[in-house]
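Please produce the structure of this protein holding pyridoxal-5'-phosphate.
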Amino acid sequence: MEPIYFDNNATTRPLVEVVEAMRPFFEEAYANPSSVHQFGQSVKHAVECAREKVAALIHAKPREIIFTSSGTESINLTIRGALAMMPAKRRLVTTAVEHAAVMKTAETLACEGYEVVYVGVDGDGRVDEEAWQEALTDDTALVSIQHANNETGVMMDVKHLAEIAQARGVAVHVDAVQTVGKVEVDVSNWPVQFVSFSAHKFHGPKGAGGLYIRRRTRLKPLLLGGSQEHELRAGTENTAAIVGMGVAAEHSSATMVQTAERVGGLRDQLERALIAEVSNATINGIGAQRIYNTSNISFEGLEAEAILILLSELGIYASSGAACSSGSLQPSHVLEAMGITEKYAHGAIRFSLSRFNTEGEVASVVERLPGLLARLSKLGSR
Ligand code: PLP
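Below is the modeled complex.
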């Protein structure tokens, strides 16, 4: 039986069209796009076509897009690069539920003397708006906020939170790694300066990230060297990955609405059935707006790792937000920030779907998971 891949927030399967479009750039189209000869210029043309497609996906201008290696790089570049342009301001505001790419950058900046504020969330993972308002002082250089949480799928009201920041004259970065390519992101309608995203989350290749930088916004580069990407990201371009990202972006633009409807239906079906079949299950973030492909379900009193191992033996690949540290499972910082108690947080499983998933796969999980959980309960997995 084919494995069932429900771990699409970790990464997605590249589209066949993406792989095919990339192939020539590993083979005959290997020139450096910075070379002035025709061969180089033809590759440069392919990179610029990809930039147009990526820009169109988020309603930006091609000049406002730079290519990086990953969402992580875009995030690091923005946070460090934006703060470096405003040396007089020493405060960074973010939330308690960000991805490690933001969290670790913020922690390091705190060690370097910046004041970092992590605004808390409510029980459904929504930012505390009052605390957000209060956190924005005259000394605040930048706020960094995610669009959708990678663990729970909870979506932030980015436009509204950015408007509050804008009113205080604070620059805004959005980590939209889990939303660009999956839901409509329209940067022309957001009062933000920076948006990070990543191709491998929307059926593009790994090793291709993007960063939207609003016109006339200044940023200090992290990597120094050649003058690629408007001198903001030195280094010969990953041409194949960039071309692949362009194709994935074009495909997402064309199919996003239908995909959201179909995949959202599958996710809802999965949740309804599991909640009906399993007595001790709760959906994390259920009261908030969530991205359509993600479901984070806690199975009370069970250990996520044990569930994931047994699921994996059945060829069902899901994930958890927990990180293994010194032999003991630490509950996810996201669930912790939402105030979810340990007996629920330890048993949280993330199912993240994509356009490649089917009704049959959902049915198969619904058929097998309750029995597996009942066996674990009997064994007293915790
Ligand atoms: N931000 C969020 C919300 C993510 O989910 C991820 C990846 O899981 C990242 C940032 C990092 O992206 P990348 O894997 O492209 O470095």
